[in-house]
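User: Run a structure prediction on this.
Assistant: Running it now.
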Amino acid sequence: MATFAERLCEAMRVRDVKQHELCQRTKIGKSAMSQYMSGKFEPKQTRTFLIAQALDVSIDWLMGANVPIGTFNPILSHPTSEESIFKLLKAEYSLNDADIDFIRDYIKLAPGEREAYRMAIEAIKKIRDADQRPQSPD
């Protein structure tokens, strides 16, 4: 089975896309892309999705499966839209509509407001963890 790095380089060659072009299309940094191309690291699912889309290749093929190079054909109707990213998140992490609304609200916050959200979530985690500790018998 071909490696991700081999397939990435082959797709770039076949599609005549240079590294700097791919970085611009995907908004992935040059350093990270170099590491993907060299095989030092493999991207996570979201970045694999972006790369496949930018190169117009099958995600399965890009990941090394023995399938034709194909074209980018996600289940999502508009792969670059914000809505499709939320669909991907819902599918990958089993999120519901309330979760997605929470993420949408969070994205709209100013950095200081985001920090307040993070602090509140950490406080909730501490309470949850304390509730899950075994209680000593009285």
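The chain has a mean pLDDT of 85.
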